[in-house]
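Contributing new records

If you add data, match the layout below exactly. Sequence lines come first and carry their own label; structure lines follow with theirs. Keep one chain per record. Anything else will be rejected by the validation script.
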Amino acid sequence: DPFEVIDLIHQAGGLAVLAHPREYDSFDLLDEMLEREVLDGIEVYHPRNTAEDVQRLEQLAREHRVLKFGGTDFHGFYTKSYSPLATCITPHETLNQIFRQKRGV
């Protein structure tokens, strides 16, 4: 159950981030997680997200005050869905927020 996994992540001191909701057609799950206020972040920036996906995910992150992450989803040079490293990155502001939270600032 994804909600049990989120509980375990939080118990371990980690951040629960839903990776590429568009890729796995998990917008319904994303909405439920945001309504329950269990997510810490969303992977907003991903090579296969459309401009509309990014806009929708940025808006959800703002509305629910969760962190915005980016990821290339790099699995090697020889995969059919190759995206170079750093194609999509996590914004510096997100990283700064994480560091401030971990330091208790």
